[in-house]
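Records of this kind hold a single protein each, on a pair of labelled lines. With that in mind, the following record should read easily:
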Amino acid sequence: MATANAGDLILRTNVGGNLTRLVRLDASGRWHALHVDPRNESDLDGVVLDPPTEQPLIARYRSTIAANYGLTAEVRRHVDAINRRFPQRNLRLQVGRGERAQWLVHERSGSLRGERLHLYDPRTGGLREILGDASFVRDGKRVARPLETAMARKIAFSYRASDGMRLHGFMSVPLGIDAAKAPLVAVVHGGPFNLDRPQFSNDVQFLANRGYVVFQPNFRGSNGHGRDYMLAAQGDFGNGRVQQDIVEGVRYLLARGIGDAQRVGIVGTSFGGYSTLLGVTFQPELFKVGIAAVPPADFGWTLREYLGAGQQMAPGIPMATSMRHLSLDPADKRLTARLTAQSPIANADRLQRPLLILAGGEDERVPIRGVTQYAAKLKSLGKDISLFVDADAGHSVDDTRTREAYYHLMETLLHRHLGGAAPQPPDGELRSHIRRNLRLAGRDLQHLRQAGRR
């Protein structure tokens, strides 16, 4: 928010419209649109303000594509010049203060780990790289940057759902492969009110490096594409419309010769993990294996847990209140009953595919008791279930050993069922960490549970 002349306010809002846009609210209470996505597809992601006056100079969008637009003729000239130097890149611009100030250009892309930094001189139009490919900072340490030429390119595309709604997603294709013969993995984002963006993803590049085509669906309910898109799910987050969006996105790619229909897997975290459980339960003809991190096994039960809880989606707003406004009212007994009836745990007997679950013992969003109950039920039914529990982890798993173990287990399962690259044998420390925390080992992971035992 910024203040304009005569007490007017400059705001980011979707009040009175679908897409979040830049508006001016005048003293009489009238709205005046200053900028909205010219493609009529994306919410406004950010605004660059003039440091001395705090007036808006640049509007930034970042959903299917990343784009910056100058809001005055002079600024537009500079933004266009920068865009020409970095076509199809994910840029974030910072404007300096003073007549001789330079601009800081943050360059990112789906194939660039971290970012490159450049200085742009608006007086001369010159650009100078100040942090390039040699290294980047991770966890406070400077490490070598992977070569961008070795990374998979991230491609935005759209498809039509069976009810006619236009949906968005990304695919990443490994270098030097025949995409029609490669295994395909759907990587479903969490939230569900979140989205995948045109930026680098460790998980995507990890999978592409092992030979998998990766599909990231921004199903209805995802944000960043306007209020109507986000609310279009209407609470149908069981084995219903949202899951159908994901399945239809996979089938859209397969029908166009992208991916081997006999070698398709599904992976996800949080809500994406829940979608993974749904996929291997209700769509086993499509998904041959599932890997789920911190997933609720009963979304209806998880919603009910938010009633009276202290969790917040936004500062000062209880989780239950946010969910109610997003068509997922935890107090709606018919809604939660329907989600429970369609839940993976209520349909555990239908599971036919191998499944790996990662859970956190201190998970504040998805209580561990729900995950262990589901895993125990699957085990009692003789299903091929593996469960890795980090007793100290919350909903976000930060322990580097656990993350390495999860990737190794993921590699192993995907290799055995989809045929991607085989993992390297784990070293002694990793093997020990897996053995301690792999509470249930399915058929493909028994050797890791038993490793080192005599």
In short: The radius of gyration is 24 Å. The chain has two domains: 2-148, 152-298+343-450. The first strand starts at residue 2 and ends at 3.
